[in-house]
Amino acid sequence: MSDIYSAFRTKSDRIKLSEADEAIYRPRDEEVKSENYIREMYFTFSGGEDSRVTLNGEEHSEGYPVLYYEENNCYAKRVFTTQYKYYIKRGPRGTLLNPLDMYDEGKYTKVAHGLSNVKYSEVNKKAFMHYITFLKTKNLAHLRNAEREAI
User: Fold this and answer.
1) Can you give the pTM of this predicted structure?
2) pLDDT tens digits for range 39-71
3) Contact 88, 45 (CB under 8 A)
4) Considering the domain boundaries, does residue 43 fall inside one?
């Protein structure tokens, strides 16, 4: 017994595994910058960034470390809808994530029952600025100030 789609499926229609990566559309970095930098910016720890930019989106060697896409190593993000909103990832105990902390290393990516143990929480601009400065400089004083402001 054949289904209605059997006429459309042939061996020649199948794509080889080696060709699969080329068949997937991935936007170029220039496209991502032009579209997403205006609406969303994803901040990461210094050393793992795709680029360094100022907060207005201009590339600068002394800027903040950012990613083009939201990934596991994204710790903060700025979103623009009608106004800017600022988000920072919090760990399972409600504290701001510290990528330098050796005791919490590796716990941030664990997923139980399809739910991650880290979540973004909205914070004020001052706490956000302290946190992304911590991500840039690795100075724990900025993390502590961000925790105080985010309460």
Assistant:
1) 0.69
2) 888 988 888 888 888 877 777 878 889 888 888
3) no
4) yes
